[in-house]
Design brief:
By secondary structure, this protein is of the alpha/beta class. It folds into three domains: about 1-150, 3-Layer(aba) Sandwich (Rossmann fold), CATH 3.40.50.720; about 160-260 and about 295-310, no CATH class; about 315-385, Orthogonal Bundle (Rna Polymerase Sigma Factor, Chain: A). It has 16 helices and eleven strands. It has helices at about 10-20, 40-50, 60-70, 80-90, 105-115, 125-140, 150-160, 185, 190-195, 205-215, 215-225, 265-275, 305-315, 320-335, 345-355, 365-385; strands at about 1-5, 30-35, 55, 75-80, 95-100, 120, 145-150, 165-175, 235-240, 245-250, 255-260. It has a seven-stranded parallel sheet, sandwiched between helices. The radius of gyration is 20 Å and the shape is globular. The mean pLDDT is about 95. NADPH dihydro-nicotinamide-adenine-dinucleotide phosphate binds near residues 9, 201, 204 and 206.
Length: about 375
């Protein structure tokens, strides 16, 4: 029986992780759950999974939640704020911490869990994008194991197995998102609701928009750089609209291994929980007689320049990756609020990166300082438009 803590249990990954646990109750127990403010969903989760700890980051929602649950006979400890998140992240009884908060908000609790030597199931890619070097160095020091949940990185992790020293290239697949066939002109007028219609995956809003700009793939290139300790020139991206091949690894002898399956995040989530074992899966199986074609295209960085921005940031240095991420979080939020157009996301991120001179990053505090700067400049660029 493994005790699982879910940071961000009310989101897309969090709720799918609870579905995995629901279907495997004799293997997994829930130790802690956290939300930013979604106390309605959290309430049902607490009654169903009876965790030892829950955290509501928003203080007013925390107070509301305490009232909501006061007549229930539960022993769950209820905490709030960032301190609460960290307490959940380092909770002694937890065996696995699923890091599935969205954005850089997930960084500190994930870092604390790594520092404590926990096993991390990592969905929150922004942690690796902004602090990959610090996190991987700390993991070595504390003996923390990081198991990727992001479908591409789970695929690569599985393909590599114990053969890291023979890897010559990583090939990340990308669906291409909802705008794969749109012209540059058409991209200027796409709406928020168009961007939120992902062809293959049902995910949180931020990552869905990132998938539409291909920034998501850019963030994944940086995530792969740190997870697998490989330089960016050995990481390729290929558009594969069917999302059947989740990624591939090429070895020095020219052999390529790929991991295939239907696009369902519960597969990599469950694998991160059962690793190094595999257990019976309750998801649909691939039926090759129904798959007519597997297609591949080179990504078009003229229509989707965010992918190139990410490669450039990785070349430029660690602080540029923090800036890329922070500016992107602001720009995606502005787009979701209807305040900027889809193609403005790129201009804001590129504009902030242009003003940044790479600096050395030594600590999580340094990361957060650069992140704050990037956000401030992103808002300035928006206000000046
Ligand atoms: P969602 O937006 O669906 O969920 C995010 C979760 O984080 C929610 O529980 C949310 O709480 C919580 N949260 C948001 N902001 C804060 C904050 N400031 N402090 C604390 N908690 C917060 O995101 P996803 O589940 O889609 O994505 C989570 C992470 O996993 C992302 O990093 C994403 O890139 C990655 N990922 C997601 C995939 C997917 O299929 N969804 C696939 C691969 C990776 P509340 O409900 O209160 O807002
Ligand atoms: Mg992915």
């Amino acid at each position: 029986m493994k005790n699982i803590t879910i940071l961000g249990s009310t989101g897309s990954i969090g709720t799918q992780a609870l579905d995995v646990i629901r279907k495997n109750r004799k293997d997994f127990n829930v130790s802690a759950l956290t939300t930013n403010s979604n106390i309605k969903i959290l309430y049902d989760q607490v009654l169903e999974f009876n965790p030892d700890i829950v955290v509501i980051v928003d203080y007013n929602k925390y107070k509301e939640f305490k009232t909501m649950i006061s007549n229930k006979d539960i022993k769950t400890q209820i905490l709030f704020g960032e301190e609460g998140l960290i307490e959940a992240a380092i909770y002694d009884k937890a065996d696995i911490i699923l890091s599935s908060i969205v954005g850089i908000a997930g960084l500190k609790p994930t870092f604390e869990a790594v520092k404590k030597g926990k096993t991390i199931a990592l969905a929150n890619k922004e942690t690796m994008v902004t602090a990959g070097r610090i996190i991987t160095e700390m993991a070595k020091e504390s003996n923390s194991t990081i198991i990727p949940v992001d479908s591409e990185h789970s695929a690569i992790f599985q393909c590599i197995g114990k053969e890291r020293k023979y890897v010559s290239r990583i090939i990340l697949t990308a669906s291409g998102g909802p705008f794969r066939n749109k012209t540059l002109q058409e991209l200027k007028s796409v709406t928020v609701s168009d961007a939120l219609k992902h062809p293959n995956w049902n995910m949180g809003k931020k990552i869905t928009v990132d998938s539409a700009t291909l920034m998501n793939k850019g963030l994944e290139v940086i995530e792969a750089r740190w997870l697998f300790d490989i330089e960016s020139e050995y990481i390729d991206v290929i558009i594969h609209p069917e999302s059947i091949i989740h990624s591939m690894v090429e070895f020095i002898d020219g052999v390529i291994l790929a991991q295939l399956g239907i696009p369902d995040m519960r597969i990599p989530i469950k694998y991160s929980f059962t690793y190094p074992e595999r257990t019976l899966g309750y998801v649909a199986r691939l039926d090759f007689s129904k798959i007519k074609n597997l297609n591949f295209e080179t990504p078009d960085v003229v229509r989707f320049p965010c992918l190139k921005l990410a490669y450039d940031a990785l070349k430029s240095g660690d602080s540029s990756c923090i800036v890329l991420n922070g500016a992107n979080e602001v720009a995606v939020n502005l787009f979701l609020q209807g305040k900027i157009g889809f193609t403005d996301i790129y201009y804001i991120v590129a504009g902030v990166l242009e003003k940044h001179i790479n600096v050395e990053i030594k600590s999580i505090e340094d990361v957060l300082e650069i992140d704050n700067w990037a956000r401030k400049i992103a808002y300035e660029l928006y206000n000046k438009r």
